[in-house]
Give the backbone structure.
Amino acid sequence: MLGEVDWNFALSNTAASFLNGGETLTLTYHVTINDPAGGTAEQDVTVTILGVNHPVVITSGPESASVSELADTTGSAAIDTTTVVPAGTLNFTDADTGNTHTVAASVASETWSGGATVPAVTQADLAAALTTTLHDSTGTGTGSVDWNFGIADKDLDFLAASETLTVNYNVAVSDASTTATQTVSVTITGANDPVMVTSGPESASVTELANTTDSTALDTTTPVPTGTLAFSDVDLTDSHSVSVALDSAVWSVDPNFVPGETLADLQAALTTALQDSTGSGTGGVDWSFSIPDRDLDFLSAGETDDQCGQPPPRSRIANAEHGIERQGTGTRERDAQGRDSQDQGVLVAAVVREEAL
């Protein structure tokens, strides 16, 4: 008599998901047939399970953190980083428990609230600013990626106070053939950096008209503008204003006295024109000096007058100050009877303080 034994094989897919792509699991079964008299016959049945790769899956949602620029600090290599280390952790799974993984981070986008183009040096350093540490899923099927952010403070100098730079990174976890990606966002808040006058003190001279009394003609410096004070501000979107205040006025004949009308007109005698640093980080203040000749009538040939005043209030944001010296030289004048004036003096210095806001 002839008989047969039909056989089938079935296994839950999850029970074999540990197999990586290309791996095999070979199963050998001994099938035994028994008759009533105690006779037996055996045959082996072999089943080979071929593994396929299962995708790596990031189970965490998008993550974010914030960083602040150092205030009133320019050109610093100090690292601005997140307050918590690590800043975040991305969890992932891979059913192929034998798989090992790699992690890569890349800049997906940069958004500056104050402009369209982030400086090239900053862009280059942002590419390496997000760092990761892998805790692999090998052997367990679950793993994680810790991430941190740190960048040199000088790379953020271009940000003005309260401006933001939002950087989105793609963090990718890969096995041999699949990749999972999640977004990490870092928002950097700018702080004010000080404006700095980079020029040294400047000076010029003015000469009173000889044998001329009570004239409204302006005695002025040449050329026009007479000088330019250069300044810098690394906060690229900052705009500035310039104020001038008489700092000193000392007459060589009487250090404690300058005629009131002359002193009043000296307050506005120094004029400025601003070439702002907005967009470039460097600017200039052109300055010139002129005063009605009659304001200098009290001076005689060879006399001097150094002038003193109070500087204007300081800016609540940032200020820079610099001295400009004006020298006015007196000439001999005669009264209506043809006699030399009894006044003796030369206006030597009017020092002003310029404050860029």
About this structure: Helices lie at 120-126, 260-266. The two ends are 109 Å apart (CA to CA). The chain has three domains: 13-50, 57-189, 196-356. The first helix runs from residue 120 to 126.
